[in-house]
């Protein structure tokens, strides 16, 4: 006759060997290993201040015959703490879902019960099979000012706990992030990147419930983001990118009228178009060229750093001037 | 596509677009007014207000199944009711505070103007579809029983909250109306004349 026994971490546990008398000669095993007699009080097994590692199969055998007299599965765990509950509508106006989890594990099985009330009306939250800590509700009404009240109760063999969430229809609307974000350079445009994306596939009716978007982008070498809010369309051209720099770009979505912004989309990387260099100029070539000249200064060939589009903002002229000075200095040294 | 390019379809889309902008602006102003009202009247923003008689509820079942005509008629009835309710609130405000709270009074008056304008806009849409415009009840609903000051404030809260919901609903309704409807005029577009 097998049993399951749930005990709290830190509890003192006494196990009786079935119907055997206290003074009967018995042997206890834990997961097949004999338990030392020091843990016995007569035929009772005493476990003090149990911890998780003591979970297992405990068996009691009659002393001489080795007949199995009692068996139990000890599960050491904790009563549930207040669960964490969140509700969200990523498919407005169809409905919303609630999902939950425990802040710390209990190490024993838990059952969850969720109730949803809208005004005086009880609503059914249909549990998802995957994931199993989630359920969804179809909206029966739209545009209601009456709040929804969701109560989640978690119960296990050692106790129960609950939490309640109250919200109105608009507040929990949060789309999934935009999908299929693509960023491409624009040919012959060293400061542009073309970004496009799609509405999240979970948003059921973008025509009637249009989304607006927030784009953020920055070169990998900088920490500060640029932001652009777009009230329609699913594409945008960045026109102030730093030439030649790799960018990271993300997009978020929000219903045009209600709710909150989605999480950021998966990041995409792109580098604006750059012109193929006409001459490859290395320091060695500059040095060789200038050391061969004894009486004249040779102007450096056009280098990329003096290219107007290839430098950072207003520093363009300063960089060109500096490059000229450096090369001039080299030339003077070797005349 | 020929129907979508017809002058009346283009006009309908134009009226719907303008209506959406009007409703969007109205909602933004109502939300600001709601914040100011809660603060000035010393109310708790999270207080639940039971449905008040005469305040049209924005809540609707099977919203997506409504015909275009239903949408317009329900919207028009609602905004006509809000016009009367806001006028009453303005009157009560003046009685309570006189000139002491002119800012709130001005904000209420501005929203009342927008509600009236939107009601007129809805009438235009109905005319476009050769729909008879239901006559406004000359005397409106029967005057409500005299409320205490606190009850007036709570009712005002209920009116503004419901108006904010209606403004969102109206935007959605007009977007549905702006869609090219099927020839038979079944939901969600505008139904054809019988």
Automatic annotation (TrEMBL), chain A:
It is a lipid-anchor; GPI-anchor. Gene3D superfamilies: Immunoglobulins. Belongs to the type I cytokine receptor family. Type 3 subfamily. Keywords: Cell membrane, Disulfide bond, Glycoprotein, GPI-anchor, Immunoglobulin domain, Lipoprotein, Membrane, Receptor, Repeat, Signal, Transmembrane, Transmembrane helix. Residues 10-60 form the Ig-like domain. The chain crosses the membrane at residues 310-333. One of its GO terms (molecular function) is interleukin-11 binding. The gene is Cntfr. GO terms for cellular component: ciliary neurotrophic factor receptor complex; CNTFR-CLCF1 complex; external side of plasma membrane. This is Ciliary neurotrophic factor receptor subunit alpha. It comes from Cettia cetti. Residues 177-277 form the Fibronectin type-III domain. The keyword Flavoprotein does not apply. It is found in: Cell membrane. InterPro entries: FN3_dom, FN3_sf, Hematopoietin_rcpt_L_F3_CS, Ig-like_dom, Ig-like_dom_sf, Ig-like_fold, Ig_sub2, Type-I_Cytokine_Rcpt. It holds the Pfam family fn3. GO terms for biological process: positive regulation of cell population proliferation. Its main location: membrane. The keyword Signal applies.
TrEMBL record, chain B:
It comes from the Eukaryota. One of its GO terms (molecular function) is growth factor activity. It is found in: Cytoplasm. The keyword Cytoplasm applies. Keywords: Cytoplasm, Developmental protein, Differentiation, Growth factor, Neurogenesis. It holds the Pfam family CNTF. One of its GO terms (cellular component) is extracellular space. InterPro entries: 4_helix_cytokine-like_core, Ciliary_neurotrophic_fac_CNTF. One of its GO terms (biological process) is ciliary neurotrophic factor-mediated signaling pathway. CNTF is a survival factor for various neuronal cell types. Seems to prevent the degeneration of motor axons after axotomy. Belongs to the CNTF family. This is Ciliary neurotrophic factor. It comes from Cettia cetti. The lineage of its organism: Eukaryota, Metazoa, Chordata, Craniata, Vertebrata.
